[in-house]
Amino acid sequence: MTPLGLTPLGWLGIARLGLVQTALGAIVVLTTSTINRVMVVELALPAMLPGALVALHYAVQVLRPRWGHGADIGGRLTPWIIGGMAMLALGGFGAALAVAMMASMPVAGLLMSVLAFLAIGIGVGASGTSLLVLLSRRVADARRPAAATIVWVMMIMGFIVTAGTAGHFLDPFSMGRLVAVSAVVSLLAFIVSVVAVWGVEGASPPAPAAGATVPADSFREALREVWSEPHSRLFAIFIFLSMIAYSAQDLILEPFAGAVFGYTPGETTKLAGLQHGGVLAGMILVAIVSTLYGNRGPGTTRFWTVGGCIASAFALAGLVAAALIGPEFPFRPNVFLLGVANGAFAAAAIGAMMRLVNAGNPERAGVRMGLWGAAQGIAFGAGGFLGALAADIARYLITSQVAAYATVFAAEGVLFIISAVLADRVASQARQPASRRPAAPDMPDLALGRPAE
Protein backbone atom coordinates (compact mmCIF):
# COMPACT_ATOMS: atom_id res chain seq x y z
CA MET A 1 0.00 0.00 0.00
CA THR A 2 1.02 3.62 -0.52
CA PRO A 3 1.43 6.11 2.35
CA LEU A 4 -2.20 7.18 1.90
CA GLY A 5 -3.56 3.66 2.24
CA LEU A 6 -4.69 3.69 -1.40
CA THR A 7 -4.01 0.90 -3.84
CA PRO A 8 -0.65 1.63 -5.53
CA LEU A 9 -0.77 2.63 -9.17
CA GLY A 10 0.01 -0.04 -11.74
CA TRP A 11 2.21 0.52 -14.76
CA LEU A 12 -0.67 1.95 -16.80
CA GLY A 13 -1.48 4.38 -13.99
CA ILE A 14 2.15 5.49 -13.82
CA ALA A 15 2.19 5.97 -17.60
CA ARG A 16 -1.02 7.98 -17.30
CA LEU A 17 0.66 10.45 -14.94
CA GLY A 18 3.68 10.39 -17.23
CA LEU A 19 1.46 11.94 -19.90
CA VAL A 20 1.56 15.14 -17.86
CA GLN A 21 5.33 15.19 -18.33
CA THR A 22 4.82 14.47 -22.04
CA ALA A 23 2.53 17.48 -22.28
CA LEU A 24 4.99 19.60 -20.32
CA GLY A 25 7.83 18.61 -22.65
CA ALA A 26 5.71 19.36 -25.71
CA ILE A 27 5.28 23.01 -24.71
CA VAL A 28 8.81 23.52 -23.39
CA VAL A 29 10.52 22.19 -26.53
CA LEU A 30 8.85 24.82 -28.71
CA THR A 31 10.00 27.63 -26.44
CA THR A 32 13.59 26.45 -25.98
CA SER A 33 14.28 25.35 -29.57
CA THR A 34 11.90 26.74 -32.21
CA ILE A 35 11.23 30.14 -30.65
CA ASN A 36 14.91 30.41 -29.75
CA ARG A 37 15.89 29.82 -33.38
CA VAL A 38 13.29 32.27 -34.75
CA MET A 39 14.61 35.05 -32.50
CA VAL A 40 18.21 34.51 -33.59
CA VAL A 41 17.79 33.63 -37.29
CA GLU A 42 14.54 35.09 -38.64
CA LEU A 43 14.57 38.22 -36.44
CA ALA A 44 18.39 38.54 -36.30
CA LEU A 45 18.30 39.28 -32.56
CA PRO A 46 21.32 38.71 -30.29
CA ALA A 47 21.59 35.10 -29.08
CA MET A 48 21.86 36.42 -25.53
CA LEU A 49 18.18 37.44 -25.63
CA PRO A 50 16.67 33.93 -25.82
CA GLY A 51 19.45 32.78 -23.50
CA ALA A 52 18.40 35.35 -20.92
CA LEU A 53 14.73 34.38 -21.30
CA VAL A 54 15.51 30.71 -20.75
CA ALA A 55 17.64 31.67 -17.72
CA LEU A 56 14.65 33.66 -16.42
CA HIS A 57 12.44 30.58 -16.63
CA TYR A 58 15.03 28.66 -14.59
CA ALA A 59 15.41 31.49 -12.06
CA VAL A 60 11.70 31.33 -11.22
CA GLN A 61 12.26 27.77 -9.99
CA VAL A 62 13.52 29.23 -6.71
CA LEU A 63 9.83 29.68 -5.83
CA ARG A 64 9.09 25.95 -6.02
CA PRO A 65 9.07 25.53 -2.19
CA ARG A 66 6.41 28.24 -1.95
CA TRP A 67 4.19 26.49 -4.44
CA GLY A 68 4.74 23.19 -2.66
CA HIS A 69 3.67 24.86 0.58
CA GLY A 70 0.48 26.02 -1.10
CA ALA A 71 -0.32 22.42 -2.04
CA ASP A 72 0.44 21.30 1.53
CA ILE A 73 -1.94 23.88 2.98
CA GLY A 74 -4.75 23.02 0.59
CA GLY A 75 -4.20 19.29 0.98
CA ARG A 76 -4.79 18.74 -2.74
CA LEU A 77 -2.23 18.33 -5.52
CA THR A 78 -4.47 18.05 -8.59
CA PRO A 79 -5.43 21.76 -8.69
CA TRP A 80 -1.76 22.73 -8.60
CA ILE A 81 -0.90 20.33 -11.43
CA ILE A 82 -3.79 21.54 -13.60
CA GLY A 83 -3.24 25.19 -12.69
CA GLY A 84 0.47 24.91 -13.41
CA MET A 85 -0.18 23.32 -16.80
CA ALA A 86 -2.69 26.07 -17.60
CA MET A 87 -0.05 28.69 -16.77
CA LEU A 88 2.52 26.80 -18.84
CA ALA A 89 0.15 26.58 -21.82
CA LEU A 90 -0.56 30.32 -21.65
CA GLY A 91 3.16 31.01 -21.38
CA GLY A 92 3.99 28.82 -24.37
CA PHE A 93 1.35 30.48 -26.53
CA GLY A 94 2.36 33.91 -25.23
CA ALA A 95 6.01 33.29 -26.14
CA ALA A 96 5.06 32.56 -29.76
CA LEU A 97 2.78 35.59 -29.89
CA ALA A 98 5.55 37.76 -28.42
CA VAL A 99 8.00 36.66 -31.12
CA ALA A 100 5.47 37.52 -33.80
CA MET A 101 5.00 40.96 -32.21
CA MET A 102 8.76 41.60 -32.15
CA ALA A 103 8.83 41.90 -35.95
CA SER A 104 6.72 45.08 -35.88
CA MET A 105 6.63 46.13 -32.20
CA PRO A 106 10.01 45.18 -30.68
CA VAL A 107 9.51 46.76 -27.26
CA ALA A 108 6.00 45.38 -26.75
CA GLY A 109 7.13 41.98 -27.99
CA LEU A 110 10.09 41.95 -25.63
CA LEU A 111 7.94 42.86 -22.63
CA MET A 112 5.43 40.17 -23.54
CA SER A 113 8.18 37.58 -23.96
CA VAL A 114 9.43 38.33 -20.43
CA LEU A 115 5.92 37.77 -19.06
CA ALA A 116 5.54 34.61 -21.16
CA PHE A 117 8.78 33.05 -19.91
CA LEU A 118 7.89 33.97 -16.33
CA ALA A 119 4.61 32.10 -16.84
CA ILE A 120 6.51 29.14 -18.33
CA GLY A 121 8.80 28.98 -15.30
CA ILE A 122 5.86 29.22 -12.89
CA GLY A 123 3.92 26.56 -14.78
CA VAL A 124 6.80 24.09 -14.95
CA GLY A 125 7.60 24.57 -11.26
CA ALA A 126 4.05 24.41 -9.90
CA SER A 127 2.93 21.43 -11.98
CA GLY A 128 6.21 19.49 -11.81
CA THR A 129 6.59 19.79 -8.04
CA SER A 130 3.05 18.60 -7.28
CA LEU A 131 3.23 15.83 -9.89
CA LEU A 132 6.29 14.28 -8.24
CA VAL A 133 4.60 14.47 -4.82
CA LEU A 134 1.51 12.77 -6.26
CA LEU A 135 3.68 10.04 -7.79
CA SER A 136 5.40 9.52 -4.44
CA ARG A 137 2.00 9.05 -2.80
CA ARG A 138 0.50 6.69 -5.37
CA VAL A 139 3.51 4.56 -6.43
CA ALA A 140 4.82 1.63 -4.36
CA ASP A 141 8.36 2.08 -3.07
CA ALA A 142 9.83 -0.75 -5.14
CA ARG A 143 8.49 0.77 -8.36
CA ARG A 144 9.66 4.34 -7.81
CA PRO A 145 12.98 4.11 -9.73
CA ALA A 146 11.12 2.58 -12.68
CA ALA A 147 8.37 5.21 -12.35
CA ALA A 148 11.01 7.94 -12.44
CA THR A 149 12.39 6.47 -15.66
CA ILE A 150 8.93 6.23 -17.22
CA VAL A 151 7.94 9.84 -16.55
CA TRP A 152 11.35 11.15 -17.65
CA VAL A 153 11.31 9.14 -20.89
CA MET A 154 7.74 10.27 -21.57
CA MET A 155 8.86 13.88 -21.20
CA ILE A 156 11.62 13.24 -23.75
CA MET A 157 9.01 11.64 -26.01
CA GLY A 158 7.08 14.88 -25.73
CA PHE A 159 10.18 16.67 -27.01
CA ILE A 160 10.62 14.26 -29.91
CA VAL A 161 6.99 13.96 -31.07
CA THR A 162 6.31 17.68 -30.82
CA ALA A 163 9.54 18.67 -32.58
CA GLY A 164 8.77 16.35 -35.50
CA THR A 165 5.06 17.12 -35.81
CA ALA A 166 5.28 20.85 -35.21
CA GLY A 167 8.24 21.06 -37.59
CA HIS A 168 6.07 19.56 -40.33
CA PHE A 169 3.27 22.09 -39.88
CA LEU A 170 5.60 25.08 -39.52
CA ASP A 171 6.73 24.82 -43.16
CA PRO A 172 6.47 26.99 -45.17
CA PHE A 173 7.34 29.19 -42.19
CA SER A 174 5.49 32.32 -41.23
CA MET A 175 4.88 34.07 -37.92
CA GLY A 176 1.20 33.29 -38.26
CA ARG A 177 1.94 29.58 -38.57
CA LEU A 178 4.20 29.73 -35.51
CA VAL A 179 1.43 31.30 -33.42
CA ALA A 180 -1.18 28.83 -34.71
CA VAL A 181 0.99 25.75 -34.13
CA SER A 182 1.93 26.96 -30.65
CA ALA A 183 -1.74 27.56 -29.81
CA VAL A 184 -2.71 24.04 -30.91
CA VAL A 185 0.20 22.39 -29.05
CA SER A 186 -0.50 24.35 -25.86
CA LEU A 187 -4.23 23.59 -25.94
CA LEU A 188 -3.75 19.86 -26.63
CA ALA A 189 -1.08 19.62 -23.94
CA PHE A 190 -3.38 21.18 -21.37
CA ILE A 191 -6.30 18.88 -22.30
CA VAL A 192 -4.08 15.78 -22.13
CA SER A 193 -2.82 16.86 -18.69
CA VAL A 194 -6.32 17.34 -17.30
CA VAL A 195 -7.48 13.95 -18.58
CA ALA A 196 -4.32 12.22 -17.35
CA VAL A 197 -4.45 13.51 -13.77
CA TRP A 198 -8.22 13.63 -13.24
CA GLY A 199 -9.36 11.35 -10.43
CA VAL A 200 -5.92 9.87 -9.69
CA GLU A 201 -5.46 11.66 -6.37
CA GLY A 202 -8.77 10.54 -4.88
CA ALA A 203 -12.04 12.19 -3.99
CA SER A 204 -10.87 13.97 -0.83
CA PRO A 205 -7.65 15.31 0.68
CA PRO A 206 -5.61 12.66 2.51
CA ALA A 207 -5.98 12.54 6.28
CA PRO A 208 -2.89 13.60 8.26
CA ALA A 209 -0.65 10.71 9.24
CA ALA A 210 -0.52 9.65 12.87
CA GLY A 211 1.58 12.09 14.88
CA ALA A 212 1.86 14.56 12.00
CA THR A 213 1.20 18.22 12.58
CA VAL A 214 -1.10 20.21 10.35
CA PRO A 215 0.96 22.66 8.29
CA ALA A 216 0.97 26.18 9.63
CA ASP A 217 -0.02 29.08 7.38
CA SER A 218 3.51 30.49 7.62
CA PHE A 219 5.70 29.51 4.70
CA ARG A 220 8.73 30.76 6.63
CA GLU A 221 8.01 28.29 9.43
CA ALA A 222 7.44 25.42 6.99
CA LEU A 223 10.67 26.10 5.14
CA ARG A 224 12.58 26.38 8.40
CA GLU A 225 11.22 23.01 9.53
CA VAL A 226 12.16 21.27 6.28
CA TRP A 227 15.64 22.86 6.20
CA SER A 228 16.22 21.68 9.78
CA GLU A 229 15.78 18.05 8.66
CA PRO A 230 19.32 16.71 8.05
CA HIS A 231 18.30 14.44 5.18
CA SER A 232 16.29 17.19 3.42
CA ARG A 233 19.11 19.70 3.67
CA LEU A 234 21.80 17.23 2.60
CA PHE A 235 19.68 16.00 -0.28
CA ALA A 236 19.16 19.57 -1.52
CA ILE A 237 22.94 20.13 -1.46
CA PHE A 238 23.48 16.78 -3.21
CA ILE A 239 21.01 17.70 -5.97
CA PHE A 240 22.58 21.11 -6.46
CA LEU A 241 26.16 19.83 -6.75
CA SER A 242 25.33 16.77 -8.84
CA MET A 243 23.18 18.75 -11.28
CA ILE A 244 25.93 21.35 -11.66
CA ALA A 245 28.27 18.51 -12.62
CA TYR A 246 25.58 16.89 -14.80
CA SER A 247 24.86 20.01 -16.86
CA ALA A 248 28.27 21.72 -16.86
CA GLN A 249 29.45 19.57 -19.78
CA ASP A 250 26.52 20.56 -22.04
CA LEU A 251 28.16 23.62 -23.60
CA ILE A 252 31.74 22.36 -23.73
CA LEU A 253 31.61 18.73 -24.87
CA GLU A 254 30.97 19.57 -28.52
CA PRO A 255 33.63 22.35 -28.67
CA PHE A 256 36.02 19.91 -27.00
CA ALA A 257 35.32 17.30 -29.68
CA GLY A 258 36.00 19.88 -32.38
CA ALA A 259 39.18 21.22 -30.80
CA VAL A 260 40.79 17.91 -29.84
CA PHE A 261 39.39 15.40 -32.34
CA GLY A 262 38.65 17.69 -35.28
CA TYR A 263 34.94 16.86 -35.38
CA THR A 264 32.80 18.84 -37.83
CA PRO A 265 29.60 20.57 -36.59
CA GLY A 266 27.56 17.70 -38.01
CA GLU A 267 29.73 15.13 -36.24
CA THR A 268 29.48 16.94 -32.90
CA THR A 269 25.68 17.05 -33.27
CA LYS A 270 25.69 13.29 -33.79
CA LEU A 271 27.95 13.00 -30.74
CA ALA A 272 25.31 14.80 -28.65
CA GLY A 273 22.73 12.34 -29.96
CA LEU A 274 24.99 9.45 -28.93
CA GLN A 275 25.29 10.87 -25.41
CA HIS A 276 21.52 11.36 -25.08
CA GLY A 277 21.02 7.81 -26.31
CA GLY A 278 23.29 6.69 -23.48
CA VAL A 279 21.20 8.71 -21.00
CA LEU A 280 18.06 6.89 -22.10
CA ALA A 281 19.88 3.54 -21.93
CA GLY A 282 21.02 4.29 -18.38
CA MET A 283 17.51 5.21 -17.28
CA ILE A 284 16.03 2.08 -18.81
CA LEU A 285 18.75 -0.02 -17.15
CA VAL A 286 17.75 1.38 -13.74
CA ALA A 287 14.08 0.66 -14.44
CA ILE A 288 14.72 -2.96 -15.47
CA VAL A 289 17.12 -3.85 -12.65
CA SER A 290 15.03 -2.16 -9.94
CA THR A 291 11.93 -3.99 -11.17
CA LEU A 292 13.74 -7.35 -11.12
CA TYR A 293 15.37 -6.91 -7.70
CA GLY A 294 12.76 -4.77 -5.94
CA ASN A 295 13.89 -2.62 -3.04
CA ARG A 296 17.03 -4.61 -2.26
CA GLY A 297 20.64 -4.86 -3.42
CA PRO A 298 21.15 -3.51 -6.94
CA GLY A 299 17.48 -2.53 -7.10
CA THR A 300 17.75 0.29 -4.55
CA THR A 301 17.90 3.98 -5.37
CA ARG A 302 20.92 4.22 -3.06
CA PHE A 303 22.86 1.75 -5.21
CA TRP A 304 22.13 3.57 -8.47
CA THR A 305 22.43 7.13 -7.14
CA VAL A 306 25.83 6.53 -5.56
CA GLY A 307 26.97 4.19 -8.34
CA GLY A 308 25.76 6.57 -11.08
CA CYS A 309 27.74 9.45 -9.57
CA ILE A 310 30.91 7.34 -9.27
CA ALA A 311 30.49 5.98 -12.82
CA SER A 312 29.98 9.54 -14.11
CA ALA A 313 33.21 10.59 -12.39
CA PHE A 314 35.09 7.73 -14.07
CA ALA A 315 33.61 8.63 -17.46
CA LEU A 316 34.72 12.24 -16.97
CA ALA A 317 38.17 10.93 -16.08
CA GLY A 318 38.00 9.22 -19.46
CA LEU A 319 37.44 12.61 -21.11
CA VAL A 320 40.51 13.92 -19.28
CA ALA A 321 42.46 10.96 -20.68
CA ALA A 322 41.02 11.70 -24.13
CA ALA A 323 42.35 15.26 -23.90
CA LEU A 324 45.82 13.97 -23.01
CA ILE A 325 45.96 11.01 -25.42
CA GLY A 326 44.18 12.55 -28.40
CA PRO A 327 42.57 10.82 -31.43
CA GLU A 328 43.85 7.36 -30.43
CA PHE A 329 41.52 7.35 -27.42
CA PRO A 330 38.11 5.57 -27.83
CA PHE A 331 36.27 8.88 -27.49
CA ARG A 332 32.78 7.99 -28.77
CA PRO A 333 32.37 4.88 -26.55
CA ASN A 334 33.46 6.99 -23.58
CA VAL A 335 30.82 9.63 -24.38
CA PHE A 336 28.16 6.92 -24.61
CA LEU A 337 29.23 5.50 -21.24
CA LEU A 338 29.08 9.00 -19.77
CA GLY A 339 25.49 9.22 -20.98
CA VAL A 340 24.65 5.82 -19.46
CA ALA A 341 26.14 6.84 -16.10
CA ASN A 342 24.37 10.19 -16.16
CA GLY A 343 21.05 8.56 -17.04
CA ALA A 344 21.34 5.98 -14.27
CA PHE A 345 22.17 8.67 -11.72
CA ALA A 346 19.35 10.96 -12.88
CA ALA A 347 16.65 8.26 -12.81
CA ALA A 348 17.79 7.04 -9.39
CA ALA A 349 17.92 10.60 -8.01
CA ILE A 350 14.32 11.24 -9.06
CA GLY A 351 13.32 7.91 -7.55
CA ALA A 352 15.10 8.92 -4.34
CA MET A 353 13.15 12.20 -4.34
CA MET A 354 9.90 10.26 -4.53
CA ARG A 355 10.98 7.94 -1.71
CA LEU A 356 12.41 10.57 0.65
CA VAL A 357 9.73 13.23 0.19
CA ASN A 358 7.59 11.62 2.92
CA ALA A 359 10.51 11.03 5.31
CA GLY A 360 9.82 13.37 8.17
CA ASN A 361 6.52 15.18 8.52
CA PRO A 362 4.51 14.09 5.44
CA GLU A 363 2.45 17.26 5.70
CA ARG A 364 5.54 19.14 4.50
CA ALA A 365 5.96 16.98 1.37
CA GLY A 366 5.21 19.85 -1.01
CA VAL A 367 7.77 22.18 0.60
CA ARG A 368 10.33 19.37 0.70
CA MET A 369 9.87 18.49 -2.97
CA GLY A 370 9.84 22.18 -3.84
CA LEU A 371 13.17 22.71 -2.09
CA TRP A 372 14.75 19.89 -4.05
CA GLY A 373 13.14 21.01 -7.29
CA ALA A 374 14.45 24.53 -6.77
CA ALA A 375 17.96 23.18 -6.21
CA GLN A 376 17.68 21.13 -9.39
CA GLY A 377 16.29 23.94 -11.54
CA ILE A 378 18.81 26.55 -10.40
CA ALA A 379 21.73 24.14 -10.75
CA PHE A 380 20.63 22.97 -14.18
CA GLY A 381 20.19 26.53 -15.39
CA ALA A 382 23.58 27.60 -14.03
CA GLY A 383 25.55 24.45 -14.86
CA GLY A 384 25.98 25.01 -18.58
CA PHE A 385 26.99 28.64 -18.09
CA LEU A 386 29.44 27.79 -15.30
CA GLY A 387 31.00 25.00 -17.35
CA ALA A 388 31.57 27.31 -20.30
CA LEU A 389 32.85 30.09 -18.01
CA ALA A 390 35.24 27.68 -16.29
CA ALA A 391 36.58 26.56 -19.67
CA ASP A 392 37.19 30.19 -20.69
CA ILE A 393 38.96 30.98 -17.41
CA ALA A 394 41.05 27.82 -17.64
CA ARG A 395 42.09 28.69 -21.21
CA TYR A 396 43.11 32.16 -20.05
CA LEU A 397 45.16 30.83 -17.13
CA ILE A 398 46.60 27.72 -18.73
CA THR A 399 46.85 28.92 -22.38
CA SER A 400 46.56 25.32 -23.62
CA GLN A 401 43.03 24.71 -24.90
CA VAL A 402 43.29 20.95 -24.43
CA ALA A 403 44.56 21.26 -20.85
CA ALA A 404 41.80 23.78 -20.09
CA TYR A 405 39.07 21.35 -21.13
CA ALA A 406 40.75 18.55 -19.19
CA THR A 407 40.82 20.71 -16.07
CA VAL A 408 37.10 21.45 -16.29
CA PHE A 409 36.21 17.78 -16.86
CA ALA A 410 38.36 16.83 -13.87
CA ALA A 411 36.56 19.41 -11.69
CA GLU A 412 33.19 17.96 -12.77
CA GLY A 413 34.41 14.49 -11.82
CA VAL A 414 35.36 15.73 -8.35
CA LEU A 415 31.87 17.22 -7.95
CA PHE A 416 30.37 13.82 -8.81
CA ILE A 417 32.56 12.09 -6.20
CA ILE A 418 31.45 14.61 -3.56
CA SER A 419 27.85 14.03 -4.69
CA ALA A 420 28.27 10.27 -4.26
CA VAL A 421 29.43 10.78 -0.66
CA LEU A 422 26.48 13.08 0.05
CA ALA A 423 24.00 10.64 -1.53
CA ASP A 424 25.30 7.82 0.67
CA ARG A 425 25.01 9.99 3.77
CA VAL A 426 21.44 10.97 2.87
CA ALA A 427 20.47 7.33 2.45
CA SER A 428 22.03 6.46 5.81
CA GLN A 429 20.22 9.26 7.62
CA ALA A 430 16.88 8.48 5.98
CA ARG A 431 17.07 4.88 7.24
CA GLN A 432 17.50 5.98 10.86
CA PRO A 433 14.48 6.55 13.09
CA ALA A 434 13.76 10.25 13.55
CA SER A 435 14.79 10.05 17.22
CA ARG A 436 18.28 8.82 16.28
CA ARG A 437 19.00 11.34 13.55
CA PRO A 438 21.56 13.99 14.44
CA ALA A 439 20.12 17.27 15.55
CA ALA A 440 20.33 20.04 12.99
CA PRO A 441 20.87 23.72 13.60
CA ASP A 442 18.11 26.17 12.82
CA MET A 443 18.10 27.68 9.38
CA PRO A 444 20.02 30.96 9.45
CA ASP A 445 17.64 33.88 9.37
CA LEU A 446 19.73 35.39 6.59
CA ALA A 447 18.62 32.55 4.30
CA LEU A 448 15.00 33.57 4.88
CA GLY A 449 15.59 37.10 3.72
CA ARG A 450 16.20 39.01 6.95
CA PRO A 451 19.36 39.73 8.95
CA ALA A 452 20.41 37.30 11.66
CA GLU A 453 19.76 38.50 15.17
The oligomerization state is single chain
- Unreliable stretches, pLDDT < 50, 5 or more residues? 433-453
Whole-number total of structural domains? 2
The CATH topology of the largest domain is given as Growth Hormone, Chain: A
The dominant shape is: globular
Largest sheet composition: none
Report, as a whole number of angstroms, the end-to-end distance. 46 Å
* Helix share, percent: over 70%
Structural class: mainly alpha
Tell how many strands the DSSP assignment holds: 0
Radius of gyration: 22 Å
Order of helices and strands: HHHHHHHHHHHHHHH
What's the helix count? 15
Report the mean per-residue pLDDT as an integer: 83
What does this structure look like?
76% of the residues lie in helices and 0% in strands. It is an all-alpha fold. It folds into 2 domains: 7-200, MFS general substrate transporter like domains (Growth Hormone, Chain: A), CATH 1.20.1250.20; 219-431, Growth Hormone, Chain: A (Up-down Bundle), CATH 1.20.1250. The N and C termini lie far apart (46 Å).
What is the compact description of this entry?
By secondary structure, the chain is an all-alpha fold.
List the helices and strands and how they pair.
Blueprint: H1 11-42, H2 48-59, H3 64-74, H4 78-102, H5 106-138, H6 144-170, H7 175-197, H8 219-227, H9 230-248, H10 253-261, H11 265-293, H12 301-325, H13 331-356, H14 365-398, H15 401-431
Highlighted features:
453 residues, mainly alpha, Growth Hormone, Chain: A, 15 helices
